[in-house]
Amino acid sequence: MAGTSAATDDYERQRVSKETSLHGVHQDLGALFTDFAGWSMPVRYASELAEHKAVREAVGLFDLSHMAEIHVRGAQAADVLDHALVGNLSGLKPGRARYTMICDAEGGVLDDLVVYRLADEEYLVVANAGNADVVAEALAERVRGFDAVVDNRSEATALIAVQGPKAADVLAAVTDADLAALKYYASVPAVVKGHEVLLARTGYTGEDGFELFVAAAEAPALWGILTEAGEPHGLIPCGLACRDTLRLEAGMPLYGNELSRALNPFAAGLGRVVKFEKPGDFVGRAALEELAKAEVPRVRVGLRGAGRRAPRRGYRLLSEEAEVGEVTSGALSPTLGYPIAMAYVDRAYAEPGTRLSVDIRGKIEPVEVVGLPFYSRA
């Protein structure tokens, strides 16, 4: 019986979502939680519309500690990442970051990543929570034969984001880092009220903003410091719900929606991240070279709807009665005031201005193909 009980306890622990080091803080703030990629994450605190508005007009505070932080270091760290990823990481200067992807041998996207070059021989690879194990295992496999090591520090690292037009004002009050010199897609070591952080500027909301990588044990204190500094600027905590509508307005893809292993970078309209000109071979190169020559049958586009009913993921797109595409993400845009969506449509129907219809639970609603992004900050 004791053995059975222990096995049951282990099974129950496996079923329970993982919690970030800020979970208790979110509970105290009255957050509504959801399971996201195996993590218990705040989906909203009070109003997702208020949270969305705060990021667009003032500043919001996000817990992104479910993301994976994987360090690659050694004399051949650059060579490893050039081999393992589709981007040219050896050409990245220390202190800068790059959006890239990791693909399988057939060119399918395993994940989209942000990679920071911290020093000549050290990189930080940030992966999506749902693909953390896949990316870590692929890098561990692909490092073999190189003078480099892969160090997965995800559990020991927390990630907090400060996003919005007043984000720099909040950070300026608590750090001596030269924020004006910190460019978009760059990072710098910094100290925030005694806490050592890696301070980055690589937002996912369409607004200016910063990400702070910090030791997980220090995250609650850092969250409190940022909350206090942000109070005069209208800062509020923000959950995953508004992060999704913010990234949708900004036309940014989400893995599992606009990206998947069944798609390649060219099919996703992101062929620009594949750098065939970089030195040496890389995983998926031969397949991607062939895919680059082929005409993509379906194209990722933006859609603008009418009324108040938003197309949602999986909804069919129609031209008259013929199915010509499928919605991947959709919502009523809080900023713009009308329904927006991203979708894959047959190439013949991808031109902006094309009129289509979407089947919203049996009711046919008109939509128009538009360019991405839907929203760009001034």
TrEMBL record:
One of its GO terms (molecular function) is aminomethyltransferase activity. Gene3D superfamilies: Aminomethyltransferase beta-barrel domains (3.30.70.1400), Aminomethyltransferase fragment (4.10.1250.10), Probable tRNA modification gtpase trme, domain 1 (3.30.1360.120). Keywords: Aminotransferase, Methyltransferase, Transferase. It catalyses: N(6)-[(R)-S(8)-aminomethyldihydrolipoyl]-L-lysyl-[protein] + (6S)-5,6,7,8-tetrahydrofolate = N(6)-[(R)-dihydrolipoyl]-L-lysyl-[protein] + (6R)-5,10-methylene-5,6,7,8-tetrahydrofolate + NH4(+). Residues 22-278 form the GCVT N-terminal domain. Residues 298-375 form the Aminomethyltransferase C-terminal domain. SUPFAM superfamilies: Aminomethyltransferase beta-barrel domain (SSF101790), Folate-binding domain (SSF103025). Substrate binds at E211. GO terms for cellular component: cytosol; glycine cleavage complex. It is an enzyme of class 2 (transferase). It comes from the Bacteria. Its EC number is 2.1.2.10. GO terms for biological process: glycine decarboxylation via glycine cleavage system; methylation. InterPro entries: GcvT (IPR006223), GcvT/YgfZ/DmdA (IPR028896), GcvT/YgfZ_C (IPR029043), GcvT_bac (IPR022903), GcvT_C (IPR013977), GCVT_N (IPR006222), TrmE/GcvT-like (IPR027266). NCBIfam families: gcvT, PRK00389.1. The glycine cleavage system catalyzes the degradation of glycine. The glycine cleavage system is composed of four proteins: P, T, L and H. Belongs to the GcvT family. This is Aminomethyltransferase. It comes from Amycolatopsis jiangsuensis. The lineage of its organism: Bacteria, Bacillati, Actinomycetota, Actinomycetes, Pseudonocardiales.
